[in-house]
Amino acid sequence: MPKISFAQHNHLDAIIKIWGLNRATLGLMPRDAFRDCIAKRWILVAEIDSHVVGYLQFRYTFRNQTISIVHLCVDKASRGQGIAESLLNKLVDEYKSKAIGIRLNCRSDYEQAIAFWTRYNFQPKGNLPSRGNNPNVHLVVWWFSFGRQDLFSVQQNNKVKAILDFNIIVKLRDLSVTDNSRDEIRQLQSDWLATEVEYYQTSETTSEIFRDDNQERRERSKVFLKNFQELNIDKPSIKQIEAELLKLFTGTSDNDRSDRRQIAESILSGFPYFVTLDEGILKQAKAIFSLYRLKVVKPSALIAEIDLTIHAEDYYPSKLSANSFTIAKMRPDERSAIDDNFLNTGKGEKKSSFTGLINDLVAKPTGCVRTIKEAEKIVSVFGYFEQGETLYVPIIRTKQYSLRQTIFIQNVNDLLKLALSKNKNFIVIADSCLTDIEKDLLTGLGFFEQQNTYIRGIKSGLYACNEVHEVIAPIAAKIPDLRNFASGLTPDAFVPGLTLEKLLWPMKLRDIDVPCFIIPIKPYYAKSLFDTKAAKSELFGVQPSLIWSIENVYYRNVKPNIERCPARILWYASAENYALRQKAIVGSSYLNEIVVGPAREVFAKHEKFGVYSWKKDILKLVKDDPNAPIKVLRFSDSESFSLPVSINKIKEILTRNDESDNNFQSPLRIKNSTFMELYSLGNGF
């Protein structure tokens, strides 16, 4: 029998050798992508006599609790011995309590593979177009369920959005032409990417094709472009960004102007990636990212990056910590700017209706309109009013620019916390001009679509699994889908329990068996990342209205390596001069992911989060060795406790619950019951 285990870095060459012999069917995969997956424990290997004879590469997405198989391959000489099945069995055993199922894509002409998936009891759930050149071949989406309710359908559109430069599209069109970049380009057509990435073209691409003097090639290009959605960007805004880009791209030729327009469209889309092979553009990648938070990447780099995105957008909470952002109640002298910038004529909205909506919100006793400004310019506006147990949001708009999705997510997060503070059971977003991406984001944030509005439930408190169905009945009466998650909950199957907790955040199920940890953090970082109570208590504290993001990261030493995910966290603020909230537990979060790797590499991939400086924070942590290993804890859905739990009280509770005594120099795993007692004290339950 083969030995099945998680791959170690010394297995890398053997894995790549097996992949290389089968790359014609597996597709291309950068070496760095294999390395990253090993670091994340996303590759299983089968060994016979210490020789790797097969591997299973996969991805685990915490947000929708789904496993996606990337490769399953056995060395030709070792086939027919049940090794592929053994690898799958190990994957199922490892994740059956953490995930809702396994998804994969398989070409419709791979008969042997289809027979294997069918034999293992995968079910076909739908078809996707193959990215190859044969129109008769498609991708079959296969699904292996762990028997739990799933908020997200197997084919929900939570794909990473990437914009392709015209030169990439041309090379994809003519893949049969051999050149030095062919393998690089072919990576974009890997079958496993079909449910992970969605490619877009800029409207400037059409102009590029129009300038082609070769009529036959021009017609082929028009047909090929139908494979990619076109960005719909406000043209006056493009001119402004184009003018700014002249500092980076000074040329005056048609190609130079086209490059500027493509990049300007990509910046304004708010999508995270612009994929190109243009060396002139790639040379300015760092400057473009610094100014606009658009990542200019080669195809191979895109594949290595896709695990860092949230849903269909890129999210930069660190940018919202900047002093240039403010949030405040709308002033009368801001009315004309709001009408000019946020009226959606593209969707047929009339000015009289928009103005009436704003006026109605201002006139309501519980109504309010708030503006978000960056450097004194209004970039977003939202309005709400209270009605019974519901917070209604009839308008939530954001300017079309690079931080559009980030600000939208932050606005929704702030509205959710506002509804919670006002003891509401529901928040309803009823803006008729939501974009498709915003609708996807709302679904991912726990909202359910109902009659052109989006509704989310809110519940606080601690409950047992057998109480939940009755407790949430009033909410489920308005959101019937929630009943599916509440029925049949058991303490040992914590995945559906965690899903329900997040859908009704900040509710907690006190008897589901979730790993729990107390993790030490310096008060400065706690205040900057999630502890709003600390910030509000300090005269010169950070601006709290816009920095507490849904998701963030915290950097730690690699050892001791006791954390596991998914998990619940209690944050212990350590001793620090002048900190008002220290030597106490000050908040809680969910731990979503743990990443370990060289400091420079890990920081580069997570720089968009948090308030960290490479020199001040990260280099200090690794004692000036940029290649030293470092650990990143990626966490979400944080709460700042109104009543910090002191060190003496913590020790008393640990002793009473037969836990290890600890001075919190490093993380401590605790029982679920201990977590609930400490959490209750922090919230004053």
From TrEMBL:
- Do you know which SUPFAM superfamilies this protein is assigned to? Acyl-CoA N-acyltransferases (Nat) (SSF55729)
Which residues does the UniProt record annotate as the domain N-acetyltransferase? 4-147
InterPro entries, A to Z: Acyl_CoA_acyltransferase, GNAT_dom
Protein name in UniProt: N-acetyltransferase domain-containing protein
**Origin organism of this chain?**
Mucilaginibacter defluvii
